[in-house]
Amino acid sequence: MRSMYYAAVVCPQEINSRIENFKNYMHERYGCTHALKSPAHITLIPPFYFDSNDELKLKEKLREVNKTLKPFEITLSGFGCFNQRVIYVDVMENASLNALYDAMTGFFADILTNTRHRENRNFHPHITIATRDIPPADFGKAYEYFTALGFAARFRTTQISLLKLIQGKWEVVYPLVETGT
Questions:
Q1: pTM for the model
Q2: Is residue 46 one of the residues assigned to a domain?
Q3: Whole domain around residue 31: which residue ranges?
Q4: In angstroms, how far is the first alpha carbon of the chain from the final one?
């Protein structure tokens, strides 16, 4: 059976709670629900289909990555948007995060042949607040709200997580402990 997965840096609970408040604002004010399906995260390997009977292979790959990962700090600052479809918390430029993305792409290439999509996109790390379901007429007001609000946070990442789509919601299936400190 094929399931959907992605690999990401999942934010620590304190930051996840703050970003969840932003997502709830978008839900209550504009009816946006899509971003509520995931914890706050920075995607490294975008969603892909994979045989769930072979899920252990994905977990083993992440275990290898996590063993060699040197912890580094990620700084979040302000908000941004993509084409009036996505509002996100911006991730400051980070050479360690860019190197991790490049390593992850190479590391997973052998088991993700013919399953990856969007691989020609540039890496633009961000944490989504609302996506796909923002009413076009309300986008400007929503984005203005967030840019006026401002946001800043930092956290240290120590591991990469694997998330799986389970009953319409993305759940961390590896590791089963909180990311960051």
A1: 0.92
A2: yes
A3: 2-174
A4: 35
